Amino acid sequence: xxxxxxxxxxxxxxxxxxxxxxxxxxxxxxxxxxxxxxxxxxxxxxxxxxxxxxxxxxxxxxxxxxxxxxxxxxxxxxxxxxxxxxxxxxxxxxxxxxxxxxxxxxxxxxxxxxxxxxxxxxxxxxxxxxxxxxxxxxxxxxxxxxxxxxxxxxxxxxxxxxxxxxxxxxxxxxxxxxxxxxxxxxxxxxxxxxxxxxxxxxxxxxxxxxxxxxxxxxxxxxxxxxxxxxxxxxxxxxxxxxxxxxxxxxxxxxxxxxxxxxxxxxxxxxxxxxxxxxxx
Length: 280
Hints:
The chain is an alpha+beta fold. The protein is built from 9 helices and 11 strands. The chain has a 4-stranded mixed β-sheet, with helices on one face. It has a 3-stranded antiparallel β-sheet with strand order 3-9-5. The chain has a two-stranded antiparallel ribbon with strand order 1-2. The radius of gyration is 25 Å and the shape is elongated.
């Protein structure tokens, strides 16, 4: 990674190195902290390097920006990344549905807690808990960002048995009780039985992906990442999904690579950039 000089021969690379050095070096670093502008720049840099969308963007540029293919434009990247995020979320929801089918057959327990650990991390990023009020007819209006419902609980903490369709809901009504309530979803509306009239219910659900936006400023004809822009939105995914998303974005540029290839090549590129910076 290339760091620009900010004070004479002092570079951010040197300052960040001091943080990880011995006690004497750390004491030296305190001298630089007396200069507020240096401290601020380091703080901003450490935050910005955590931006998932910029890490994905840089990796994509590594593979796409060639004389043959041309350069990645921010508009293309934002479009392809959003498409990749939606595809990835649909894959996970499909996994949940398969898991639910196995649970219905008695092979697994209900709920997302039985999903594999790596998928639980991904799902945890999108999982949302919200309290809603049912109307007098026992109906619950869902938020617009609901993709998949995990659990629904009434005001006594009792979970509703979620029916797959209205036929199942109608069939099971005869055995439903206050301790074994039913629910069925129709679009953004949930019917309950016995009717959970005018009461608070808690819903755990997977929300829609937020549209990403890699924002920038043009400096000397080059787009420079600017996460302070009011329209900035980071990649809406768990950090562990970084290379999965890079692969999916690259496919939309016509490049087919595997995750392990992405990691290896990106690591080599970073080492080369670091060596070049040290020689400059």
